């Protein structure tokens, strides 16, 4: 998977993504990350890439030419015309499902805006997708691009050491992840649940599924609509809902 980031702050995205798991995946050649400095495509002698908005108003707008030139150069280098995702709070909100869809692409371009935004014509000409990371406004698209690249990368085979962990974690099957424990067995008076020490794999698996269902009901009940539960698990969920309604076994407050 090859990620290309069109940005005015290449050191920001490369610094973040060269660290930890994505950094290791880059070293191993499983993913590549290239930051293209839009400023390198300015034809202005002062390397300007922005100007005042027509019609007036505060702030500066990124001009279309350097952005389009940067994209065309990228197409010429890769021999393809990859999807271009524009980072904007006006876009569809990024989800695990969108990440799974994007992980099937071989090349992806992330276009990061700054200042008051990007000249609409650049977006008309190159943007194929508009994505947001949530209903709040950031100063630029770099952090959203890093969030999305991190999320997509961990779905690329070989990026995580443990192949199953990408599947089992939160949101797989629309259920949140079960609680995890490691040594020591008792910490500050709190013991690891007995079943996890039993070595009985079937019971452990059942306990973990039930914990996932319980947790999802407590923290993100909206996800349960899309969960794939067995008949037994459905019964367990109904039991939990009944308990909630009658106030029995108050859900924990973590
Ligand atoms: N640019 C500024 N805010 C953003 C957000 N929430 N998501 C994506 N891009 C952005």
* Helix-strand makeup class: alpha/beta
Order of helices and strands: EHHEEEHEHEHEHHEEHH
* Tally of discrete structural domains: 2
Query: Largest sheet, order of strands side by side?
Result: 2-1-6-5-7
Question: What portion of the residues fall into strands of 2 or more residues?
Answer: 15-25%
According to CATH, the fold-level topology of the largest domain is Alpha/beta knot
Summed up, the helix count is 9
User: Would you identify the regions where 5 or more consecutive residues have pLDDT less than 50?
Assistant: none
Oligomer state equals single chain
Q: Tell me roughly what share of residues is in helical segments.
A: 25-40%
Q: Which small-molecule species are bound to the chains here?
A: adenine
CATH superfamily of the largest domain: SPOUT methyltransferase, trefoil knot domain
Number of strands: 9
Mean pLDDT score: 94
What is the correct CATH architecture of the largest domain?
A: 3-Layer(aba) Sandwich
**Overall spatial form:** elongated
Provide structural commentary.
The protein is an alpha/beta fold and 254 residues long. The protein folds into 2 domains: 2-153, SPOUT methyltransferase, trefoil knot domain (Alpha/beta knot); 186-246, Orthogonal Bundle (Trp Operon Repressor, Chain A). The chain is built from 9 helices and 9 strands. It has a 5-stranded parallel beta sheet with strand order 2-1-6-5-7, sandwiched between helices. A two-stranded antiparallel ribbon has the order 3-4. The chain has a two-stranded antiparallel sheet with strand order 8-9. The radius of gyration is 23 Å and the shape is elongated. The model has no long low-confidence stretch (mean pLDDT 94). Adenine binds at residues 87-89, 132-134, 136-138, 141, 144.
């Amino acid at each position: 998977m090859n990620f290309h980031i069109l940005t005015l702050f290449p050191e920001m995205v490369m610094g973040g993504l060269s660290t930890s798991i994505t950094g290791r995946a880059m070293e191993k050649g499983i993913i590549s990350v290239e930051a293209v400095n839009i400023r390198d495509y300015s034809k202005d002698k002062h390397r300007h890439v922005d100007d005042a908005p027509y019609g007036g108003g505060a702030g500066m707008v990124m001009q279309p030419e350097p952005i389009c030139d940067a994209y065309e150069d990228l197409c010429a280098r890769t021999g393809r015309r990859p999807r271009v995702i524009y980072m904007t709070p006006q876009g569809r909100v990024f989800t695990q499902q969108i990440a799974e869809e994007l992980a099937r692409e071989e090349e992806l371009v992330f276009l990061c805006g700054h200042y008051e935004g990007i000249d609409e014509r650049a977006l008309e000409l190159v943007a194929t997708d508009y994505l947001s990371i949530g209903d709040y406004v950031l100063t630029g698209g770099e952090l959203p691009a890093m969030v999305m690249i991190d999320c997509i990368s961990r779905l690329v085979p070989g990026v995580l050491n443990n192949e199953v962990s990408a599947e089992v974690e939160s949101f797989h099957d629309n259920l949140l992840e079960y609680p995890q424990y490691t040594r020591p067995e008792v910490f500050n008076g709190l013991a690891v649940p007995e079943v996890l020490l039993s070595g009985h794999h079937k019971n452990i698996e059942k306990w973990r599924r039930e914990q996932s269902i319980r947790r999802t009901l407590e923290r993100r009940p909206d996800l349960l609509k899309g969960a794939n539960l067995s008949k037994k698990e459905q019964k367990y969920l109904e039991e939990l809902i009944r308990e909630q309604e009658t106030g029995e076994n108050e859900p924990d407050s973590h």
